[in-house]
């Protein structure tokens, strides 16, 4: 019995050993397979590492070549930049020099401008002085012209005696005599009491009271333009103070011309005058007399110079009227 148990036990042990050997063999086979698999993986890894190393070496070589090339290009760029920097420095030096020269020129211009302004101020002062002188001369001229006009009118005092000597007609003392006072623009033709240029013939009128009268002038050669014209009655105020002249018509070369509103005045209380073209008189005098007692639109410029371009004859017709009174409305 004991031997059988031992044999059974031994059999069991043997079976267990065999099973263990089978298990060990199976595991050995698995381990071998795993080792082979690992060896394949290691070989693959070694291949990959070798390829990676080769690639890395190639990339490193390429990087070195690129770095060398970049270094060369950088050196050339550096040289170019250095050259450009040198050029810039030279240009900056040139510009600085020009700027300094320009600054000096600006200073010179400022000095010249200041001098010009000083001269301009001086010129303005001189101009102001010249303006004052011109105004003074204009005033003196106006005064001289007024005095000349008065002198011309004063010369008319002798008109009656001169006319009597020329015509053989004896007039009463202080008989009013009407005539045209005239001067053209270039002053070559004049008709005043004692200033008749050659070639001027006057038609006078003895004014012996209320009525209508006509006076005239004729010229051997056409008188161009109009500088001054008036109707004057010598001794008019001395014989008939306050009487009014109403100019009815002015003819040039036989043709009536447009006539504005006129007024009667006396500068000295001796002569009666009607200005028909006297540009020096700007305002109607306060003592002016009117045929209709209406001062509106009256002027010392009653005719247009355009109608006197080439005058051969000029004629004035007027009414001589006493002043309005209660007895003579």
Which descriptors apply to this entry?
329 residues, alpha+beta, five-stranded antiparallel beta sheet, 11 strands, 20% strand
Characterise the protein shown here.
With 329 residues, this protein is an alpha+beta fold. It has a domain of 169 residues. 51% of the residues lie in helices and 20% in strands. The protein is built from three helices and eleven strands, in the order ααβββββββαββββ. A hairpin with a 2-residue loop joins strand 8 and strand 9. The longest helix has 154 residues. It is rod-shaped and about 210 Å long. About 6% of the residues have low confidence.
List the helices and strands and how they pair.
Blueprint: H1 2-155, H2 159-167, E1 177-183, E2 190-192, E3 195-196, E4 200-203, E5 205-206, E6 211-223, E7 228-234, H3 236-239, E8 244-252, E9 255-256, E10 272-277, E11 311-321
Antiparallel strand pairs: 1-2, 1-5, 1-7, 2-3, 4-6, 6-11, 7-10, 8-9, 8-11
What is shown here, in short?
With 329 residues, the protein is of the alpha+beta class. The protein is 51% helix and 20% strand.
Low-confidence runs (pLDDT<50, min 5 residues)? Answer: 151-158, 160-170
How many E-type strands? 11
Shape: rod-shaped
Helices, by number, come to: 3
Beta strand %? 15-25%
Q: Give the radius of gyration.
A: 66 Å
Largest sheet: 6 strands, antiparallel
What share of the residues lie within helices?
40-55%
Briefly note the structural class of the backbone: alpha+beta
Summarize model confidence as the mean pLDDT.
80
């Amino acid at each position: 019995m004991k031997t059988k148990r031992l044999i059974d036990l031994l059999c069991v042990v043997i079976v267990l050993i065999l099973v263990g050997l089978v298990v060990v063999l199976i595991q050995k086979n698995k381990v071998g397979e795993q080792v082979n698999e690992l060896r394949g993986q290691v070989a693959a890894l070694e291949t990959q590492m070798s390829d990676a190393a080769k690639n890395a070496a190639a990339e490193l070589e390429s990087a070195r070549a690129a770095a060398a090339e970049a270094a060369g290009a950088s050196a050339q760029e550096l040289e170019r930049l250095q050259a450009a920097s040198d050029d810039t420095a030279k240009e900056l030096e040139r510009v600085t020099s020009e700027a300094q020269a320009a600054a000096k020129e600006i200073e010179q211009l400022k000095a010249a401008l200041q001098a010009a302004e000083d001269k301009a101020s001086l010129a303005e002062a001189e101009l102001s002085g010249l303006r004052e002188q011109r105004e003074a001369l204009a005033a003196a001229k106006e005064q001289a012209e007024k005095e000349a006009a008065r002198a011309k009118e004063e010369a008319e005092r002798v008109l009656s005696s001169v006319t009597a000597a020329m015509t053989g007609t004896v007039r009463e003392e202080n008989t009013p005599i009407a005539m045209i006072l005239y001067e053209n623009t270039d002053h070559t033709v004049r008709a005043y009491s004692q200033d008749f240029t050659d070639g001027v013939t006057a038609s006078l009128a003895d004014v012996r009271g209320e009525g209508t009268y006509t006076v005239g002038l004729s010229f051997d050669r056409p008188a161009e333009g109009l500088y001054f014209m008036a109707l004057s009655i010598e001794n008019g105020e001395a014989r008939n103070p306050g009487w009014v002249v109403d100019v009815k018509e002015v003819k040039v070369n036989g043709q009536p011309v447009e006539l504005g509103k006129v007024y009667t005045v006396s500068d000295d209380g001796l002569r009666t005058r009607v200005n028909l073209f006297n540009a020096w008189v700007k305002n109607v005098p306060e003592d002016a007399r009117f045929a209709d007692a209406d001062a509106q639109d009256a002027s010392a410029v009653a005719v247009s110079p355009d109608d006197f371009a080439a005058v051969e004859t000029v004629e004035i017709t007027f009414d001589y009227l006493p002043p309005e009174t209660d007895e003579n409305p």
